[in-house]
Write a structure and sequence with these properties.
The chain is an alpha+beta fold. It contains 10 helices and 15 strands. The longest helix is centred in the middle third of the chain and has 20 residues.
Length: 420
C-alpha cells in the first residue's frame, strides 16, 4: 500500500466547513449541509479583475490583490497606508451583508481572534465597516490581520510526506500551544484542520531554518459559558445547527452536544493521524458518511496503513481520538506535554504539564493490536460498520489541489447501534 497523501474526492473535502441543520426524522436528523470554506491562506485564485483591488477601505487600507476566497469572504493583500506595511484583509462578501448569521459569525471571528495574544496565533489588527462615499466599498465589513507567508499544513503534508518524526512533533507542539492559549481565555476553535495551520520558515539564533506555526480562522470559535458572550454562541447553534468540518469533527460535536476543550483535542488527534498516514482516518462520499464514522467506527491504527509510522505517535493520536472525552488527553497542554515526553524518549506516562505545575492523570493509552495476519479490517475502522455505513476505500494518492466546497443534503446524526 502506498503511503502517499490522500487524493481528495467530492464530498470528502477536509478543507470545507460544514454547517448542518435540520429536524429529527425517525431518530435521525434530516439536514441540509451548507458548506462554507474560509481561511487566511490562498484557496482559489481570482480569474477576473476584482472591483475591490486598488480601492481604499476603512480609510486606512489600500487593497492590492486578492489572495484567496471562500463562501464567507475574500482575503486580500493590502497596504496599511500610515505604516506602509502590508497586511491581510478578510472582506465579507457583499451579498452576505443582509444575512444576520454570516454577519454575526464575521463579528465573532474578529472578537475571538482579538482576545488571543500568542505568537502561534494569527494576530488581528483591526475590524470595522467602511463608511466612505465609495459605492463599491461603503458598508463592507473587514478584518485586518497580519499577512502570513508560507504553506498550510495540508500543503506541507502533500509536498513533504512522510514527515520526519521530530518535525511532526514540533509542528504539533506549536499548534497545541496556540490552542491551549485559546482555551485559557475560554475559546474553543471547533474547526481545527491542516488548512487552518500555517507554516512559515524562520531562522533561529543558530542560523538554522525552523518551522514556525500560526493557527488561524477562528470564524466558528465558541466562547465557553464562563464568558457573558456565550449567548451569542447559543444563537448560532439553535435548531440543531452544527458547524465544523466532518473529517475532523469529534463525536460530541457531530451529535450537537455541548463542547469543551477536549473537542479540539480530538480534532488535533485527527490532524496528527493525517500527518502520520497522509490522509484522514474516516472518508466518505457525503458528509454524513464521515460524521457517522466518527460516531460508530474506531480508526484503523496508522501502522496498519503505513507500516513505517511512528509507534509512539500512533498511541498519542489514537488516545486523543478516543470516543469518550474522559479517555482523551484532558487538555491541549496535556497532549503537548505527552509529545514532549515522546520527543525526549521518555515514557508517555512521565509527562507533566510543567508550564502550569499541574501533574495530570494521564488517561489510559490506546494499545494497538498486532498487525492483522488474515482478513483485513474494513477500511477506516477497527470494528466493522453496518453495510449502510461502509465506504469503499479509495487508493492512496497525491492530491494536486484543494477540493471545491460542495452543497449537499445529508441525514444527520444519530448512529445505528454498533455491531455486537
Amino acid at each position: 500500500m502506498s503511503d502517499a497523501p490522500e487524493d481528495r474526492t467530492p464530498g470528502s473535502d477536509p478543507g470545507s466547513s460544514e454547517s448542518f441543520s435540520g429536524t429529527p426524522v425517525g431518530g435521525i436528523h434530516v439536514a441540509q449541509a451548507q458548506v462554507e470554506q474560509e481561511t487566511v491562506v490562498p484557496l482559489v485564485r481570482a480569474q477576473a479583475p476584482d472591483p475591490l483591488v486598488g480601492r481604499m477601505i476603512g480609510g486606512k487600507y489600500r487593497v492590492e490583490a486578492q489572495i484567496g476566497t471562500g463562501a464567507m469572504g475574500s482575503v486580500y493583500r493590502a497596504l496599511q497606508i500610515s505604516l506602509e506595511k502590508r497586511i491581510a484583509l478578510k472582506i465579507l462578501h457583499s451579498h452576505l451583508r443582509s444575512d444576520g448569521n454570516f454577519v454575526e459569525r464575521f463579528h465573532r471571528e474578529a472578537k475571538a481572534a482579538s482576545r488571543l495574544d500568542h505568537p502561534n496565533i494569527v494576530r488581528v489588527i483591526d475590524f470595522g465597516e467602511d463608511t466612505s462615499d465609495d459605492p463599491v466599498m461603503n458598508g463592507r465589513l473587514f478584518i485586518a490581520m497580519e499577512l502570513l507567508e508560507g504553506r498550510d499544513l495540508f500543503q506541507v503534508i502533500q509536498d513533504d510526506f512522510p514527515l520526519p518524526r521530530e518535525r511532526t512533533i514540533e509542528i504539533m507542539r506549536q499548534t497545541l500551544a496556540a490552542v491551549a492559549s485559546a482555551h485559557d481565555v475560554g475559546i474553543i476553535h471547533r474547526d481545527l484542520k491542516p488548512e487552518n495551520v500555517m507554516i512559515s520558515v524562520r531562522t533561529n539564533d543558530d542560523g538554522e531554518a525552523i518551522d514556525f506555526i500560526k493557527v488561524c480562522d477562528f470564524g466558528i470559535a465558541k466562547m465557553t459559558e464562563r464568558d457573558a458572550s456565550d449567548e451569542e454562541s447559543r444563537k448560532l447553534s439553535v435548531h440543531g445547527l452544527l458547524v465544523g468540518t466532518p473529517e475532523y469533527m469529534s463525536p460530541e460535536q457531530a451529535r450537537g452536544e455541548k463542547l469543551d476543550p477536549r473537542s479540539d483535542v480530538y480534532a488535533l488527534g485527527v490532524v496528527l493521524y493525517q500527518m502520520l498516514v497522509g490522509r484522514v482516518p474516516f472518508e466518505g462520499t457525503q458528509p454524513l458518511d464521515v460524521a457517522l464514522r466518527h460516531l460508530a467506527d474506531d480508526p484503523q491504527p496508522p501502522r496498519e496503513r503505513v507500516p513505517d509510522a511512528d509507534a509512539t505517535l500512533e498511541i498519542v493520536c489514537l488516545t486523543a481520538m478516543s470516543k469518550a472525552r474522559d479517555k482523551r488527553y484532558q487538555s491541549a497542554r496535556e497532549m503537548r506535554a505527552v509529545l514532549r515526553a515522546a520527543l525526549e524518549g521518555r515514557p508517555l506516562s512521565s509527562a507533566s504539564v510543567n508550564e502550569t505545575g499541574v501533574f495530570p492523570s494521564i488517561p489510559p493509552m490506546y494499545t494497538p493490536p498486532p498487525p492483522a495476519m488474515s482478513d483485513p479490517r474494513p477500511s477506516g475502522g477497527m470494528s466493522a460498520a453496518p453495510d449502510s455505513l461502509r465506504i469503499s476505500p479509495e487508493p492512496l494518492g497525491r492530491a494536486t489541489s484543494k477540493a471545491t466546497p460542495l452543497s449537499t443534503e445529508t441525514d444527520l446524526l444519530t448512529p445505528p447501534p454498533r455491531p455486537g
